[in-house]
Specification:
The chain starts with 5 loop residues before the first helix and ends with a helix. The protein is an all-alpha fold. The protein contains six helices and no strands.
Length: about 240
């Protein structure tokens, strides 16, 4: 039995929210992939809270997209079971997103700590590993920083001691880091600079997850209203 009256409006609004969920799902996947790419270049991957957060974000985004499709089919066919499934799964996704947002905020300093240890370890292999050298040079050039804490971190790594990687120079040229002048290089450490960037982005992701969770609450409410209407239709029949 087709829904009538005010439920048609609820059904229309649910379709709009389902489109929004699909867009949010794609956005979450994009954010997760971007975070994974950044962390893969700055932090050694392992079963740590910082490394697992992007994976959770990608998984939630993919699952949200599938659940949105289930909700679309349920609303279109006015199927009681599909709408119940949609409401239950959407509730689970909302809880996971809130937990992920909280975890992102709580473990933001843990990510920075891991990054600092990995950066210092990679600095030790800089002179003998070309791949590491390219990675650190790119980070120092992009973030306009030098060393982990500051440029003096390179003193006991590169020979001669009055040398830093060319990527530390304000104007990067061949051998500009040899016998450098402090006024010609970026003196701030990469841990603080990149750490600040990571913190701000973690907060953005956490805020976005909480915002999406609020929209999902509306989706759950509309789905429950539609379920009640469908059920009333069955009872009348």
């Amino acid at each position: 039995m087709a829904v009538e009256g005010g439920m048609k409006c609820v059904k229309f609004l649910l379709y709009v929210l389902l489109l929004a969920f699909c867009a949010c799902a794609v956005g979450l996947i994009a954010v997760g992939v971007g975070a994974q790419l950044v962390l893969s270049q700055t932090v050694n991957q392992g079963a740590t809270p910082g490394a697992l957060l992007p994976v959770v974000i990608i998984a939630v985004g993919a699952f949200l997209f599938l659940v949105a499709l289930v909700g679309c089919c349920g609303a279109c066919k006015e199927n009681y079971c599909l709408m119940i499934t949609f409401a239950v799964f959407l509730s689970l996704i909302m809880l996971v997103e809130v937990a992920t947002a909280i975890a992102g905020y709580v473990f933001r300093d843990k990510v920075i700590s891991e990054f600092k240890k990995d950066f210092q370890k990679q600095m030790q292999t800089y002179p003998k590993d070309n791949q590491t050298a390219v990675l650190l040079d790119r980070m120092q050039r992009d973030f306009k920083c030098c060393g982990a804490d500051n440029y003096t971190d390179w003193e006991n790594i590169l020979v001669p001691k009055d040398r830093v990687p060319d990527s530390c120079c304000i104007n990067v040229t061949q051998s500009c880091g040899l016998h450098f002048k402090v006024t010609n290089i970026n003196t701030e450490g990469c841990v603080e600079k990149i750490g600040g960037w990571l913190r701000s982005n973690v907060l953005v992701v956490a805020a976005a997850a909480l915002g999406i969770a609020f929209v999902e609450v509306l989706g759950i409410v509309f789905a429950c209203c539609l379920v009640k209407s469908i059920r009333s239709g069955y009872e009348v029949m």
